[in-house]
Give the backbone structure.
Amino acid sequence: MLFRSGLFLCTLLTLPSAAVLIGASPAIVVMLLPAGLSHGPLPSLVAMFAVTIIFGSWNALLARYYYAGGDTRTPLFCELAGSVLQGSLLLTLPWIMGITGIAGAVTGGVLSTGILLALRLDRALLFRLFMFGAWSLVVCGVSAWLLFFWTSHGNWPQVIAATLYGIFVFIMLSIWYRLRLSN
């Protein structure tokens, strides 16, 4: 129960942040970086990197679970395996997908590390992570819709819409967590 609460709290803190970053990435690139960068692949690259925030927090929690049990070798080996996969993907995906292949390689490395860490703990945990991941990707997909819909309305409306969506996601996750605690 405690581990499940930690997993959910990691999601509660990172999913709204990722949703805001995905939804506001074109406006963030326009407002914070030099002119001309917003017309290239950089906004989609920022949005794709935002997804790894969620899965990376889960990996940190899983690794700390091992550390608490006195096992420091398993997280190291899983992280090394994920890094090897990420390096392999970095050699191939940018040739296929262009610059967005870099974000795809990082996502693949983070996901493989998480899968290896969860597999060594419990297969039921892996299923739970897949369910959390699926819902997280749905939330990120809605945020990507905000990205494409609000781009034509200007920078500030896009940032405001993404922020309001992030607040909405945070409130809904908080309510769901509260309901699960009461049961």
Summary: The chain has six helices and no strands. The chain has a mean pLDDT of 87.
